[in-house]
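Supplementary Methods S3. Complex input for the magnesium ion-bound model.
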Amino acid sequence: MTLAIETTALTRYYDDLCAVDHLSLSVNNEIFALLGPNGSGKTTTVLMLTTLLHPTTGTATVCGHNITTEAGQVRNCISYVPQDMAVDIRLTGRENVHLFAKLYGVKNPKDRTDEVLAVMELTDRADDLIKTYSGGMRRRLELAQALVHEPEVLFLDEPTLGLDVAARKKIWEHIRGLRQKGMTIFVTTHYMDEADQFCDRVGIISNGKIAALGSPEELKARLMKDVITVRIEGQYPDHPVDAVSYVGQSGDEVTFTAENGSEALPHLAKTLESRGVRVHAIDLHEPTLDDVFLQAVGPQEEPHGFSDAKFRIMLRRRK
Ligand SMILES: Nc1ncnc2c1ncn2[C@@H]1O[C@H](COP(=O)(O)OP(=O)(O)OP(=O)(O)O)[C@@H](O)[C@H]1O
Ligand SMILES: [Mg+2]
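Predicted complex, serialized as structure tokens:
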């Protein structure tokens, strides 16, 4: 069977810096998300798979074609929407897509342009200049442009970055629709909730290496524990506390796992108090992809979202 994407020890150096380190992955008939902190190697991976950057060592095939020796064949069966904008804002939406349809030698470029604009719900605004589009509309236009030659594999680098919640949801609805039509989609994102909700499998990449790989459900189940997050003042003094395991601190939020969270929580609160740690909030919840990410990659600079309540204990009901 030919897999949509298969990489074997794919590696890329920029001078001495190893941006992607022996990446071995198979992706087929799914929405696959590559998650990772800034600079972890996501875009470098996508650039190699789309033939825009040579690997230093290792190999990969896309639609069965070698990315180095059969780059032309790879390009014929993929589309790529880069992290930065890929449309000419001085053209109208229709002109932009039509240009791509012609570049790709699509049979009926005019009809196909109308078709993909309709799929992305842009027919009404097709004759307006792109510079008058909202961010979400531009992203949908880039998708329309990418779909014009009916690719088998679609690469999307941060497709929802900077969009509001409604626009992000709409983009994902379209991506899911493409998946249902049989397309393989390789996406990078920083948004854990989106990866959890919309992707079939995720790979968490850290310093160019895969740190965790599986479906969001599998990865969360692997933690197999309750998660307790505590908002504190200052740095957590990493002293062991009975019945919980320390995972890490991100901003003012410290994460622990526990076999039985509701039993461990009062004990943890008491222990922290006795050690003079000022606790502003404690939250017990089932593992999320954020927790998986924290465990796989370690704390990041951006703090996780949390309520502003001064002191509050929230016990989310287990599903
Ligand atoms: N052209 C380049 N020359 C030198 N170093 C580079 C180049 N492109 C990327 N890097 C470095 O390679 C590493 C991986 O970068 P990459 O852009 O792949 O990360 P990323 O995961 O896509 O990050 P982000 O989430 O910020 O988009 C980083 O340390 C980056 O600084
Ligand atoms: Mg990137």
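The CA atoms of residues 118 and 143 lie 12 Å apart. Residues 165-180 form the longest helix (16 residues).
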